[in-house]
Every structure is written in structure tokens, then in C-alpha cells.
Design brief:
Length: 387
């Protein structure tokens, strides 16, 4: 944040990404809060009066206690080792905030102006936020792909800087897109092919190998003419996927699909299952994880990699019986002598849920959708505003 002047005694509005999963008022994964702490602490220790703003969930422009940031304020205070002021108001001046103090505004998405597609409405809300501070720091990478008031409009109204978290994310993503060290391997999983259409299309021009697992793999297997039983399938994406298979072959990209899967009778943690060949899933079964042969295959394809990007679990990792594939890929990344990036979202959550060492990876992104859009080659409004 070298482009900010002395912040001592000045009010600094920090747009953080504190969109954490909640079970009632219990935070089930505080990874994003922990990732936001260094920038907030740096400003507070420099004597700034730090006002943090963020969103949580999709309250659709109306106050909703289910999406209150009150539990986040408490956890942020614990991690900072100081009380975080929180009044439950989206716009709050905090007149008693001392130098080095930290406050948190209520969920920005309680106000319709935050996400409004009407520029005037959005800018009016941005004006209210900007009036709270002297400077702005954008540090919520998970939101920079959104043209929202707190992300896009406020930095146009205040002297601004890129926070440490966003700067680190951009540096990592540039390393993935601008002359990556090879072999460059990308592992994609998760539920739907449609969520990753554009990123697959762009990555096929850049990578050496593309490993496909998770629910999206079954659409690829079906596109090759295989029976996938009751597995997750996007019929409307079959032609698109056949195009990807053809394009990979033309470009010499090694596209690797599962060779076996754990085929369960139904979607449940305790569902009976058997290991079957990926091209012969029984009609009355559904694949919920990659099988042991695929785990070895994928690990082998990662062993000589020099750059790896992983986004999306290999199976239903929340169910212990179907978490083995995701664990195997994560452990292969840890073992690889490569620059390894975990692409946020469910992948990052899986690393923490499975108790894997976070420092075993070169970088764990907080970005999720923002990371994918960057890899698609899109312009991200929040980054554009900061730069």
C-alpha cells in the first residue's frame, strides 16, 4: 500500500472479503477472515482508524439477520487481538473510533445500492460509503469481479490503494497466465461443466495437461459415449464438451478423465458403493468420487508438473466416504515440486476440512469466481478501479 500517504489518525475504508460459511451464528470456515487480517492489522498498527466493509451471502438488498456480520466481527476481533466495533448499521461513522481502532459495517448487501445495475443508484450508495473515510483500500479479491458500489465505485471517489491480499492474488494469477513454468497442469472439478466453460476454453490455449474430476467429469464421459448411470450430467453441454475434446486433441493438450469411480446407490454419506470402471457405471448407480486407479493416475500426471492450478473437488468431499479423491489430489500437489495454486471456493474449504497443511501449497486463493474470471481473460471491474 505504498501509494497511500501517512494514514495515522485518518479514516481508511477497507473493502474485505468476509463471505464465510455460517451454521446459524457459528462460522464453519474462517479462512477468508484470516486472509483479511494482515492488511487490516498493518493499517491499524500504522495508526489508521480502520473501517472494514464486506458482504455475506445473498440477502437481496434487504436486512436479514441470517446474513448479519455480527459473528464475523467477533471472530475478526479474536484474530486481531482487539475489539472490533460493530453497531449493526451499514452506514456508521463510528465517532469514537480511536487511532489504531477497527470497526466493521453491517452487510453491504442489506442495501440495494450495493449491487444495483442502475449506475446512479449504485453511485449514490458509494457516495455514502466514501463519506465515511479519507482513503480506500481494496482487499476483497473474492469480489473484484463484481461491478458493485463498494468494489468499483468507491475507489473512484477516494484516494485508494490495493491491499496486500489482492496484490498477492494478482501476482499469483499473472504467474499462471504469463509464461508459466512447464509442464503446466490444471485440475478442474466441482459439479458443473457450465460453471467453467470459458475457463476451459481459455486454458486449452495455455496448459500442457488438463485433469477433469468431480461431477463435471460425467458430462465429459457421456460426451465420449459412455454410460454414466444416475451421475450428475449436463445434457445441454455435451456438444460443447465434444468441442473441448476435439480442441484438446488438435492442440496436443493431454486431457485426462477418470478411469474408475466410486458408484453409490444414492446421494448420501452412508450410501453403499462399489468401485467401477468409469466407462461402465451401472444405470442404477451414481458416481460420487474418483476411484483408486484414477487417484494414482492423477497423482502421476502431477508428479513432474512445475505449475499447477487446482479448482474444484474430485467428489463429494463433505462425505467422508467420498473424500478420498479430493484428498489424493491435494496430497499430490503437496508432494509435487511445483508452484501450486489452490483456486479458492470448495477446493480451499476441502483443504481445511480434510485437515491438510495449508503451507503445503504455494498459494491458496480466496478468489473462487474472481480467480476463474481472471483465468478466462476477463477484465475484473474491481481491479480496473484500483489500477
Amino acid at each position: 500500500m505504498t501509494n497511500l500517504p501517512d494514514v495515522r489518525g485518518r479514516r481508511v475504508l477497507v473493502r474485505a472479503d468476509l463471505n464465510v460459511p455460517l451454521d446459524g451464528e457459528t462460522i464453519t470456515d474462517d479462512g477468508r477472515i484470516r486472509a483479511s487480517v494482515p492488511t487490516i492489522r498493518e493499517l491499524a498498527e500504522a495508526g489508521a482508524k480502520v473501517i472494514v466493509c464486506a458482504h455475506l451471502g445473498r440477502p437481496k438488498g434487504e436486512p436479514n439477520p441470517t446474513y448479519s456480520l455480527a459473528p464475523v466481527a467477533k471472530r475478526l476481533g479474536e484474530l486481531l487481538g482487539r475489539e472490533v466495533a460493530f453497531t449493526g448499521e451499514v452506514i456508521e461513522e463510528f465517532p469514537d473510533l480511536q487511532d489504531g481502532g477497527v470497526a466493521l459495517l453491517e452487510n453491504l448487501r442489506f442495501e440495494p445500492g450495493e449491487e444495483s445495475k442502475d449506475d446512479a443508484v449504485r453511485r449514490a450508495f458509494a457516495g455514502k460509503l466514501a463519506a465515511l473515510a479519507d482513503f480506500y483500500v481494496g482487499d476483497g479479491f473474492g469480489a473484484v469481479h463484481r461491478k458493485h458500489a463498494s468494489v468499483y465505485d468507491v475507489p473512484q471517489l477516494l484516494p485508494h490503494a490495493m491491499g496486500g491480499l489482492v496484490a498477492a492474488e494478482v501476482e499469483v494469477l499473472k504467474r499462471l497466465t504469463e509464461d508459466p513454468e512447464r509442464p503446466y497442469v490444471v485440475v478442474l472439478g466441482g459439479a458443473k461443466v457450465s460453471d467453467k466453460l470459458a475457463v476451459i476454453a481459455n486454458l486449452l490455449t495455455k496448459v500442457d495437461r488438463l485433469l477433469i474430476g468431480g461431477g463435471m467429469a460425467y458430462t465429459f464421459l457421456k460426451a465420449q459415449g459412455h454410460e454414466v448411470g444416475g451421475s450428475l450430467l449436463q445434457e445441454d453441454q455435451l456438444d460443447q464438451v465434444r468441442g473441448f475434446l476435439d480442441e484438446a486433441a488438435k492442440r496436443g493438450v493431454e486431457l485426462v478423465l477418470p478411469v474408475d469411480v466410486l458408484a453409490a446407490t444414492h446421494f448420501a454419506e452412508d450410501a453403499p458403493f462399489e468401485v467401477v470402471a468409469a466407462d461402465a457405471i451401472p444405470a442404477d448407480r451414481q458416481g460420487l468420487d474418483i476411484g483408486p486407479e484414477t487417484r494414482e493416475l492423477f497423482a502421476g500426471k502431477l508428479a513432474d508438473a512445475r505449475t499447477v492450478f487446482w479448482n474444484g473437488p474430485m467428489g463429494v468431499f463433505e462425505f467422508a466416504a467420498f473424500s478420498g479423491g479430493t484428498r489424493a489430489v491435494a496430497e499430490a500437489l503437496i508432494a509435487a515440486e511445483a508452484f501450486t495454486v489452490v483456486g479458492g471456493g470448495d477446493s480451499a474449504a476441502a483443504v481445511r476440512l480434510l485437515g491438510l497443511p495449508e503451507d503445503g501449497f504455494s498459494h491458496i486463493s480466496t478468489g473462487g469466481g474472481a480467480s476463474l474470471e481472471y483465468l478466462e481473460g476477463k477484465t475484473l471491474p474491481g481491479l480496473e478501479a484500483l489500477q
